[in-house]
Amino acid sequence: xxxxxxVYASSPxxxxxxxxxxxxxxxxxxFEWAGHRWAYEVTSFDDAGDYDLLYRFDDKPYPEEVxxxxxxxxxxxxxxxxxxxxxxxxxxxxxxxxxxQDGWRDGVAADxxxxxxxxxxxxxxx
Length: 126
Known about the structure:
Layout: E1 2-8, H1 14-22, E2 30-33, E3 36-46, E4 49-57, H2 63-66, H3 75-82, H4 84-98, H5 104-125
Antiparallel strand pairs: 1-4, 2-3, 3-4
Helix pairs in contact: 3-5, 4-5
């Protein structure tokens, strides 16, 4: 279930909200504030004034930080899915000399996940 919250610019908690949103420990687009993990959706206004609209999903992180589809595919899985072409090309170079080995597909898949892990480390470092 999607929950939303308006944080008005004139409210006493607006300063704490901005500090949580733009400072400290952030993972992707979500941030910890008011006891939950929120993500910014839009800035707008109504009769009560200007506000930022926040949303969350059942206290879980912003969806794109967890999966890229609705079938529980993680960002690691997504990166691994992008890597087999390169991993297979590397294996072909090896197979040209040594020949194809039993279980070569498992090796290519394992290499793809190693590449995904390297991509995640590089993502964290930047």
